[in-house]
Design goal:
By secondary structure, the chain is of the alpha+beta class. It is 47% helix and 20% strand. It contains eight helices and eight strands, in the order ααβαβαββαβααβββα. It has helices at 6-14, 26-41, 48-63, 75-78, 96-106, 123-131, 134-146, 170-173, and strands at residues 46-47, 68-74, 83-84, 87-93, 113-118, 149-152, 155-158, 163-164. A three-stranded mixed beta sheet has the order 2-4-5, sandwiched between helices. Strands 6-7-8 form a three-stranded antiparallel beta sheet. A hairpin with a 4-residue loop joins strand 7 and strand 8 (163-164). Helix 1 packs across helix 2 (26-41) and helix 3 (48-63) packs across helix 5. The longest helix has 16 residues, at 26-41. The N and C termini lie far apart (58 Å).
């Protein structure tokens, strides 16, 4: 069929041109389309080992900054996912400008890295939030609302007073 790109392959499948080839049937064509969809869903993503190789130097550089008290790799990587779609780091740093400057110096030029900053009081709550799946975030937010609290990317907050609750550990959050 003189197909040279994935786009051409998908187009040929959608026109049922693979079915006419020797050794190809409807099932094979459906499998090819399914694999093309899977490839599209992980485009731009990294394997865990690839993400680790990009995050290690960032983590080391941040730990070397005097103003930094804690560093955690969060998001897909922090959840232990094998496919990492976003590189993200949570940093406890009292001086936001220092944390941002160090990340800019250490991050790879070809990849975006999300830097989330927290102080000592909000670090544990933000860590829980940033390493939770979307479903877990919804459940935690609902549970917090039942108790007169708000739980979101800003941390665990007294909903009435708008004041963050100090949590020293992830266990304190739960």
């Amino acid at each position: 069929l003189s197909i040279t790109t994935l786009g051409e392959l998908e187009y040929a499948c959608r026109e049922n041109r693979l079915v006419g080839l020797s050794g190809f049937g409807e099932k094979t064509q459906a499998n090819v389309l399914a694999e093309l969809d899977r490839l599209r869903s992980v485009r731009g993503a990294l394997r865990r080992d690839q993400a680790r190789s990009l995050l290690d130097p960032i983590e080391r550089a941040l730990w070397a900054v005097d103003e930094v008290a804690q560093v955690e790799l969060v998001g897909d990587f922090g959840r232990g996912e094998e496919i990492v779609r976003e590189l993200a780091v949570l940093v406890e740093c009292d001086d936001e400008a220092v944390g941002l400057a160090e990340l800019e110096r250490a991050k790879p030029r070809e990849r975006a890295v999300a830097l989330h900053l927290a102080d000592a009081e909000t670090f544990a709550a933000k860590l829980v939030w940033l390493t939770s799946s979307a479903g877990h975030e919804v459940a935690l937010s609902a549970r917090a609302r039942e108790r007169g609290l708000r739980f979101d990317a800003e941390g665990l907050v007294d909903a009435e007073q708008g004041v963050p609750l100090a949590c020293e550990s992830e266990e304190d959050v739960y």
